[in-house]
Amino acid sequence: MANQPAGCANSNGSDSGGKGSMSWWQLSLLGVGCTIGTGYFLGSAIGIRQTGPSILFSFILAAIGTYIVYNLLAKMTTEDPQEGSFCYYAAKAFGKWAGFSCGWNYWCSNILIMGSQLTALAILSQFWFPSVALWVFASGYAILSLLIVFLGTNSFDKAEDLFAIIKTAAIIMFIVIASLALFGVIEGNGKLPELSFSHEDLFPEGLKGLWSSLIYAFYAYGGIEVIGLMAMQLKDKKDAPKAGNVMLMILTFIYVASLALAVLLISSDAFNDKESPFVTALGKYNLPFFPHVFNGAIIIAGFSALTAALFAVTNLLVTLAKDGDAPKIFEKKLKKHKDLPLPSLTLATLGLIASVVTALLLPGKVYEYLTTAAGILLLYNWAFIILSAFKILKQKRSGIMIGISGLALLLSAVTGTILEKSIRFGFYISLLLVAVIAVIAFFMNKKWKKDHIV
């Protein structure tokens, strides 16, 4: 999952269309590095297990859906540049309740993303220490991440750039080594699985498997809405669509190429949710260094994503409080301690604790549940982006049809989680959170209308 900066800043609509300092290609590369995360490194293994080689189609469909969402967001950014991005546009299109709902939905999704990252890091750490309980590792990473945020490490932003390079380099390393293995340059134990294009081999679990795997493909592209926020830093806001298109082309190539090599090197039933599919794919080759180097790189990158998400939810809640969408107490900061928003950080800490407790009670399924719920919440916001574009942008009939196609893909990914029993609980979690936000938004909206009349 993406290393996400603080969320819907200035959702009250203050104009921020000033001159930025970033070129379009810099935003593209930054987007690639920030989007790749443990959701791809580990979550894709669950997708392969559910749908086999057809996981490639899932990632291509997800790329199309992501392109539609970002393209509409970029167009709205070009016409009306705002730091609030998707939260601001939701409020502009449907009213304050929509901006409120998007902001809190985004906060909840980031909390679940932190839980997903914590669990992923714990699972990956068990590669070296399989006898250590999942919750022990989760607790350790949570404490370390909180310590970094509490101390306010000034150099962490620079470290984030390094971690993004490490993640991307890890995948490129796999693509190179796997290609050498596929063409026989590197020899391994056992034979390669037979290459077959029959329906049974490509879709071993049928349409149901492909359908239920879509959520993991979309989750790997998660963070595109944050690139919309970062588009405010472009020298020319009109370059936002170009930056997103190039970023998605690079991401899609990296994702599809690496997954294609993985399923070509080993049979789909060999993958599991306890290790990265790329480590599994090269497991039968005499490469003792690879699993350790690759696993270490993912853990370093995943921890950066965890800490960045913690920074994000902490600062996002402060912004929500300033805009009147959260209790005013969350605006307070400790001036004697580097302007630390302690109330906001405390609430985020409770979310981390809940994730650790969940890992203790449900060690077998917690990653799938949290990843599924986090992915669905992100898609709810993406749907808001498309719906907002319908009201804000003047589009031709073809543009409207493309937007409807995007909504259909998002709906397919969400409903696919209902089909698979092992991840269905994640759908219920997302539904519960959305229901709570909707109820609060309903009562808040009545208050806003009353205040407006007064």
TrEMBL record:
One Pfam family in the UniProt entry: AA_permease
Chief location bin: membrane
Keyword field: Amino-acid transport, Membrane, Transmembrane, Transmembrane helix, Transport
Cleavable signal peptide: none
InterPro entries xrefs: AA-permease/SLC12A_dom
Localization: Cell membrane
Membrane topology field: Multi-pass membrane protein
Name of the protein this chain belongs to: Amino acid permease
